[in-house]
Amino acid sequence: MHSLHELLKDQLKDLFDAEIQFSAMLPDMIEKATSTDLRQGLSDISENTLENITQLQEVCQLLETAPTGVTCEAMRGLIRETTQTTGGQGDTATIDACLIANAQRIAHYEIAGFGTAKAFARCLGKSEAATLLGKLASRAGDHDKMLSYIATGGWFSTGVNQEAIEGSTSH
Ligand SMILES: [Fe+2]
C-alpha cells in the first residue's frame, strides 16, 4: 500500500474476483428459489453481474492494470453462507427469505466496494472510471431495493417474508 492509486487498483482486483464468485453462485440460487418474482429478480441480478464483470475490466483498462491476482475473502464468506442456503432443506418460502438475506448482504458489500472505489477514482482525477464505478454502485443499490420489495411485498403480492411466517405448516 504505497499510494491511493495502488490501493484503487488492488480494490478493483478484489471487486472483480468478488463479482466472478457471485456470478458463479447465482445459477444455484435461481434454481433453489421458488417465488416467481425471486427467480426473475435473481436472473436479472445474474445478467447484471456479468455486465459488472465486463465494466470492471473496462475500469481496469482505464487504470492500466489487469483485474486478476486478488481473491476476495469477504465474498468467499458470503458465498459460503449462501451455499448453506442452496444446500439446505425446509419450507420453500423460508428458503426464499434466506436467499434474499444472502443476496442483500452481497448487494450491500457491492455498494460499499463500488462506492469506495468510485470515491478513490474521483479523488485521483479518473473521472471516466469514477462514472463507471458509480453506475455499478447504483446498480447494486437497485438490486437491494428490488430484493426488499420481493421480501416485504407491494401492490401485487404479500411478499416472501409474510409467506414464510406460516412456514411448513401451510405447505
Ligand atoms: Fe473483498
Automatic annotation (TrEMBL):
Return the InterPro entries for the record. Answer: DUF892_YciF-like, Ferritin-like, Ferritin-like_SF, YciF
- Origin superkingdom: Bacteria
Q: What is this protein called?
A: Ferritin-like metal-binding protein YciE
Origin species: Roseimicrobium gellanilyticum
